[in-house]
Amino acid sequence: MKRLFLALAALVGAALLGGRTFAQEPDGTYLFAHRDTCDLFMDVYEAAPGSETTLDGKAKPTLLFVFGGGFIGGARNEPWYFPWFKRMGEAGYRVISIDYRLGLKGVKMDFSPFGRIKTAKNTIKAEYMGVEDLFSAVSYICENAEALGVDPANIVLMGSSAGAIISLAAEQSICNADSWAAALPEGFNFAGVISYAGAIVGEEGVPRYKTPPCPTLFFHGTADDLVQYDKTQVMKLGMWGSNVLADVFRKNGYPHCIYRFRDHAHDIAANFMALWPYQQYFLEQNVIAGKDVCIDALIDDPNVPKWETFTLKTLY
Hints:
Elements: H1 2-17, E1 28-34, E2 39-45, E3 54-55, E4 58-59, E5 62-66, H2 82-90, E6 95-98, H3 116-143, H4 145-148, E7 155-160, H5 162-175, E8 192-196, E9 199-202, E10 216-221, E11 231-234, E12 237-241, H6 242-252, E13 256-261, H7 272-288, E14 295-299, H8 312-315
Parallel strand pairs: 5-6, 5-7, 7-8, 8-10, 10-13, 13-14
Antiparallel strand pairs: 1-2, 2-6, 3-4, 9-12, 11-12
């Protein structure tokens, strides 16, 4: 099954790069945490020389990226991310891509009616293992902010698929001041969150926020059944996708934008280059300019590529 996953990942990468290879070296690689099973690193890609790193006199944020891979695979330095990192660097943004432990690697997943509860709880465990590692990365960045050239108050968190699940759970953790968030510097929050086909997996019902979350951008395909666009729920245990989370944000007046891609499946989790203009607009308007721009759009754009993606059976 691992070989199948790697083969599928390679196909996605080829689709994104048009069959080309692309090499890009980070400007720095740093060890940010020791774990019992592995060491965790981050790669820093500085903004391209000569690029505009400010907008209307305000510094552009550092973009902190959490990769995807179903909690069983993926890496911070997959080659098909590099054109996207390069695009962001040319636009004047520093990118930091981080490791996290793969909490479902080697775990048997059972999606039968009798196995779903255990599978959901295993996913929650993996989700918060990733949150713990993400918060270790944030703490390292804050402790070394001057050396890294990063303003801790100006970091935007981005995640794809499993990385988006981690990112959304991390922001909820901060807003709810739970035990995981205690590892962060006092008063820390992200300047924004960008979720490429993410959700929150939990066992306390529809996600709630004790304090307002930072501006959030949701991308999701309406036909995504790998990471639910809507929800899967048994009692209070479930997965709540972008459609449900955006509804929570709307009802509570939290600043957010959601782009719903008609008939797209999980390809939206890796459609970085095609979605860059939407991301750039959010960064410039909601994060840098500080405007509460709210957008809820159903997109049917032939310029956004569509391809076959993983299913639960092929991934696990």
